[in-house]
């Protein structure tokens, strides 16, 4: 398809002109801009542009949806018009990050550091939970533990405890690796720095309080300057600041030292300088700051436990929405390291359950089978610790489930804090979270769990039913009803959304499938409606009709006999063309372009002819989830294909795999 240069010029004008574009790149579906001033964007001009299917701002990037197959041509034309240089996706991300305020930058930095090490911490937490079950008295036998009753299990529990505690014992090494990487230094030097801070020759940080009480803290004497010879087990701030300094020193030396002697100079000098400063200045100062923050939090929750529980328990879901919840990972780790447990994490687990319970209650409010399926699948996900599908797919969309989830979580948080419930580690949130709670506090935690299961469910179900009755029966024939969520009635909004979709792509009547192309499931998993994909370009069907699949494995196969016509450079999206000319886009995950192809393995190339069921792409599902990116995969029939007539979709909630049909396309006689 030829690109109208005038329309591209209008896009440039609409985003504020070439001077307002700091950097621009594109993915398989959209242009991504970092703009000097987003207030200069002319939204009406964009909406009037035939090339533009939608636009929105996200994480400092202004995104203009063009659609697969055209976006690269539009981008090339735009670069030719503006005379600008081509930017990578990292360039745009960096430019967008510069516009964030200091708080946003700090939150993002902490998230970038702690998210990569989260799997190790969560695994350690789960194993500690198993150890708690084996060694906790009173769980299976009155006053005695399982290993006391059956001594043969003692060493088994000991091995589990050793494996579990390793991540916490050498936590500074994990943080050092991740922080050095984030700050642009050598990951290996970051690991070494972390290990230096927990060297066995140092006084263990966990023994510091007793040693101070006994007056037995060892000291170094550096030319008359005495400072404490202590380690920093379980500490966060000392290694964070030291890793930042290490990266700065290393980068400085790499610029100044000649290549011929870099190996002999850079690493030794960087570690020596950072190590001395870590033990003499950085460590003591940040150790004191970290303890002050920890003691302050403990004091607040000891003095006003009810208020602390209501506030943190209530607003945690809001922290998830804003991304600020990542900040508290560092606080949890600090509390566990210095106090032996965290009172914040148990409230996280209850908040997950509360949002899941509110989403599940919508099963009684929704009328459409598609939405009922979403309510069930998203709530199960939340009960297992992953709340994004419930929060973004259901609760925020209708507002009141989200609010009632927060209310239930606040009450649960109150119960936990007034009873001083602690988690011995960070584990999996939701219902499995009890494994991380000290066994002698399970009873109280289960009471809190019952509260967050019952309260949000009842409030959401009752309010939803009452609001639906007040709104009256939904007009299922009103195809022009606007698609928008309100705090009024989910059923009405849901019907409006369904009607709007039907107008764009009417359903093929049963038994009339003449000249119909069947699209088989390219992935195994659960069908999700596009409206619940956490990306406006897909959710608002700006690129075309289709469905999404929440995958259960990491394989994408051909949904029909086809030709591969396009593969995005970062390997997360592919476009296939049927012999009839119908094209289908398969887009693995959301914002997975940021992973630069790392979790994806291609098994085909552009121009290849493939058979239905043939393996196209393999992806590491866990790696995508660990990067805190949704793995939900849209399957799109792009707009603008004359051959495509009506489209019908598999109902949401259906489990599909292999040769299960997820879409049916009635071929248009005019397009054949």
Automatic annotation (TrEMBL):
**Where's the PTS EIIC type-1 domain?**
108-479
Fetch the Pfam families from UniProt: PTS_EIIA_1, PTS_EIIB, PTS_EIIC
Q: Name one GO molecular function term.
A: protein-N(PI)-phosphohistidine-sugar phosphotransferase activity
Transmembrane domains' residue ranges: 109-130, 150-176, 188-210, 230-249, 261-289, 309-331, 343-367, 373-394, 401-422, 442-463
Which Gene3D superfamilies is this protein grouped with?
Glucose Permease (Domain IIA), Glucose permease domain IIB
NCBIfam families membership: EIIB_glc, PRK11007.1, PTBA, PTS-IIBC-Tre
Protein name per UniProt: PTS system, trehalose-specific enzyme II, BC component
Recorded source organism is: Paenibacillus sabinae T27
């Amino acid at each position: 398809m030829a690109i109208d240069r005038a329309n591209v010029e209008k896009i440039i004008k609409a985003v504020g002109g070439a001077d307002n574009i700091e950097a621009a790149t594109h993915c398989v579906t959209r242009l991504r801009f970092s703009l000097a001033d987003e207030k200069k964007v002319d939204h009406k001009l964009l909406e009037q542009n035939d090339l533009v299917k939608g636009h929105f701002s996200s994480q400092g990037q202004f995104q203009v949806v063009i659609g697969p197959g055209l976006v690269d041509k539009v981008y090339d034309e735009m670069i030719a018009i503006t005379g600008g240089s081509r930017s990578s996706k990292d360039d745009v991300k960096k430019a967008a990050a510069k516009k964030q305020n200091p708080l946003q930058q700090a939150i993002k930095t902490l998230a970038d550091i702690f998210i990569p090490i989260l799997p190790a911490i969560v695994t350690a937490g789960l194993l500690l939970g198993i150890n708690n079950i084996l060694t906790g008295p009173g769980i299976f036998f009155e006053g005695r533990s399982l290993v006391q009753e059956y001594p043969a299990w003692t060493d088994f529990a000991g091995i589990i405890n050793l494996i579990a505690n390793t991540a916490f014992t050498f936590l500074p090494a994990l943080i050092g690796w991740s922080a050095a990487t984030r700050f642009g230094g050598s990951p290996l030097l970051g690991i070494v720095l972390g290990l230096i801070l927990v060297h066995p020759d140092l006084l263990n940080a966990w023994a510091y309080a007793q040693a101070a009480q006994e007056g037995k803290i060892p000291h170094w004497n550096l030319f008359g300057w005495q400072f404490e010879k202590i380690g920093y087990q379980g500490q966060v701030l000392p290694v964070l600041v030291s890793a930042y300094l290490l990266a700065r020193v290393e980068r400085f030396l790499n610029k100044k030292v000649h290549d011929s002697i870099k190996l002999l100079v850079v690493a030794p000098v960087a570690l020596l300088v950072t190590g001395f400063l870590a033990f003499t200045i950085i460590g003591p100062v940040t150790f004191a700051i970290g303890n002050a923050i920890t003691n302050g939090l403990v004091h607040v929750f000891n003095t006003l436990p009810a208020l602390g529980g209501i506030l943190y328990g209530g607003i945690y879901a809001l922290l998830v929405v804003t991304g600020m919840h990542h900040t508290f990972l560092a606080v949890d780790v600090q509390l566990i390291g210095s106090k032996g447990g965290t009172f914040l994490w148990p409230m996280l687990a209850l908040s997950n359950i509360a949002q899941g319970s509110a989403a599940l209650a919508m099963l009684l409010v929704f009328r459409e089978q598609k939405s009922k399926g979403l309510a069930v699948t998203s709530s199960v996900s939340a009960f297992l610790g992953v709340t994004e599908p419930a929060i973004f797919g259901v609760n925020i969309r209708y507002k009141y489930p989200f609010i009632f989830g927060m209310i239930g979580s606040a009450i649960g948080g109150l119960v936990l804090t007034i009873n001083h419930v602690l988690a011995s580690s960070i584990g999996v949130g939701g219902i499995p979270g009890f494994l991380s709670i000290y066994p002698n506090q399970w009873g109280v935690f289960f009471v809190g769990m019952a509260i967050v299961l019952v309260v949000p469910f009842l409030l959401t179900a009752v309010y939803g039913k009452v609001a639906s009755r007040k709104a009256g029966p939904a007009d299922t024939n009103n195809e022009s009803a606007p698609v928008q969520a309100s705090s009024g009635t989910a059923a009405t909004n849901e019907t409006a959304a369904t009607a709007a979709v039907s107008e764009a792509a009417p359903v093929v009547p049963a038994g009339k499938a003449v000249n119909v192309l069947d699209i088989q499931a390219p992935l195994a998993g659960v069908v999700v409606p596009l409206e619940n994909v956490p990306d406006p370009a897909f959710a608002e069907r700006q690129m075309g009709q289709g469905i999404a699949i929440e995958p259960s494995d990491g394989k994408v196969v051909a949904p029909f006999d086809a030709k591969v016509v396009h593969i995005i450079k970062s390997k997360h999206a592919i476009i296939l063309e049927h012999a009839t000319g119908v094209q289908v886009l398969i887009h693995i995950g959301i914002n997975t372009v940021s992973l630069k192809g790392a979790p994806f393995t291609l098994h085909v190339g552009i121009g290849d002819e493939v058979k239905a069921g043939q393996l196209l792409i393999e992806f590491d599902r866990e790696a995508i989830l660990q990067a805190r990116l949704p793995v939900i995969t849209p399957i799109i029939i792009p707009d603008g294909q004359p051959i495509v007539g009506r489209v019908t979709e598999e109902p949401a909630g259906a489990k599909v795999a292999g040769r299960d049909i997820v879409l049916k396309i009635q071929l248009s006689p005019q397009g054949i």
